[in-house]
Amino acid sequence: MESFRLCFHNFLSFHLSIIANIFRWLFSSLPTIKRFPLFVPFIDAYISLLFRFANLSPCTLDLDDQTTIHFWAPNHRRYDKPNLVLIHGYGGDAKWQFMYQVKSLAESFNLYIPDLLFFGKSYTSRKERTEEFQAKCVVQGLKELGVRNCSMFAISYGGFVGYRMAEMNPEMVEKVVILSSGVGCSKDQKEEQLKKIGRDPVELLIPEKPEDLHVLVNLSIYKYNPFKWAPDYFLQEFIDMISRTYLKEKQELVHHLLSNHTDCRLPILNQETLLIWGDKDRVFPLMFGYQLQRHLGPRAKLEIIKNTGHAANIESPDSVNALIKAFILPQSKDL
């Protein structure tokens, strides 16, 4: 299935790029039109439709007079299904990062998918930039949606948030799944990894130009580049609409993540924990997965997906979903 998706994606992206360039050429003589985004809003609407077909609807919650958090939540909660919270990383809002997973996961779980603060429609005027504050906001939003217990799947930066959420709310979070996250890395390890990558972390995680986005995608994806055929103006549309909103605040999140504060002793979670890693991850190499597994002890296990990079949620969503279901669902339940 994943090999078919890969071939189809390459075929589709190539032909869409041709169509995009034709439209760009047709509109090139109309300077007032070409300033407006043309393609990313269409794709964003299509992804929203995928979420709606998965029995999800958007909702925005005011946690207080300074903080608003956006969720995708079930239209009708099924009490015979467990609750699963999906927490995204950098690289766009929740829709763009979980679009390949929601349909399959929604068949087995009640999905709750927040946009973290400063992503999508979530925002706070407060000055906190910690993973703990992000986690508190997610938990408060879940409680307002009536969620009292859940399992959690978090990717990359979301893993830092999800880890704190599980630590601070052991009575709520039952099982934890973390995909390719640098949780537990020391400051020295972060600096060494950044030297190997050779890019400023802010430029890497918050691209401003198409070439920056190409670097991020090439670093995150092993099997294929989803933007290989995309013209630069399409990539700039994506950057302007998805990546550069709340730019200053996102930069502050990165700086906090790299600060000494994040090097405090990492607590050991009480929950059973599944770690998933791509064996070709160049952002947080596999050694970090083994390191986190050793730290967590016997309640944690590590699953490795072959020929997959950092963004396994994009490259190998079927494999990731199968691991999530096998870990969280009762063994008697049909996967």
TrEMBL record:
Residues 82-191 form the AB hydrolase-1 domain. Pfam families: Abhydrolase_1. GO terms for molecular function: hydrolase activity. It comes from the Eukaryota. InterPro entries: AB_hydrolase_1 (IPR000073), AB_hydrolase_fold (IPR029058), Meta-cleavage_hydrolase (IPR052370). Gene3D superfamilies: alpha/beta hydrolase. PANTHER family: ALPHA_BETA-HYDROLASES SUPERFAMILY PROTEIN, SI:DKEY-122A22.2. This is AB hydrolase-1 domain-containing protein. It comes from Solanum chilense. The lineage of its organism: Eukaryota, Viridiplantae, Streptophyta, Embryophyta, Tracheophyta.
